[in-house]
Design a protein that fits this description.
Number of strands: 2
Helix content: 55-70%
Strand order of the largest sheet: 1-2
Order of helices and strands: HHHEEHHHHHHHH
Shape: elongated
Length: about 260
Amino acid sequence: MGYVKIRKNKISRLSVVDQVCEAIKADLAAKVWQVGDRLPSESELADMFGVNRLSVRMALQKLSTLGFIETRVGEGSFVTEFSMQPFLLEVAGVYKDEKRRKDVEQLRNLLEGECMSIAILEATEEEKNGLKEKLEQYFEKEAVYNQNIKDDEALDELVNADFAFHYEIINISHNHIYMDVYAMVQQLIREHIKYLISTRARRREEAGLMALDHKDDKHLQMYESIVNGDIEEARRSRELILGIRPIHGMDYFDQADES
């Protein structure tokens, strides 16, 4: 794609690399270059900013590391679709310990709680039906997983279905910031879901108990709370699913009342 030269202010000599990097990021945000476009060459950028090629090269390397551009040997640097997911994928393992898992739990409770409240007030019949479809898909995957809780593929598919159900609630809010944040941290959320499902399934197996019937599943109660406009039940079912409140027969096995 041809390059249209754009007039630039000269860059001061203080923190040259960072200033070049910020200037290019500003242009990316302003859509001067679209996803897939090739950036000007190092020489052209150096001329535009009034800096040396080494400073430009280091700025481009930084942008590449951050995921804003992709540099191809012999071709140049190209604008990419920015996403936080690769970064969060790399750090997801850090959040597997109990303290940081609690951080993910609290984030989910905050986002999902707000979006459930919005869904109770504003969800259309079409959106409720869409959520019901996600719930049914979750039950299908759950039934397969319960036949063999050591099946890693079945576990992964159940995690995907569980995430899809919760993300549908986020979507119903129509709040793009909530949707983007939830999508950006989805790897952390998936790890949290996986931990809850596998740990609870193992506990029931060790206790010699059968899988819970669908009518007792908290996801069903969550769905029904949205359909019925029951804010208190929405909070209760969410806290049970997330492990904020322990579930009798899954998190503990005495006769105490889970409520």
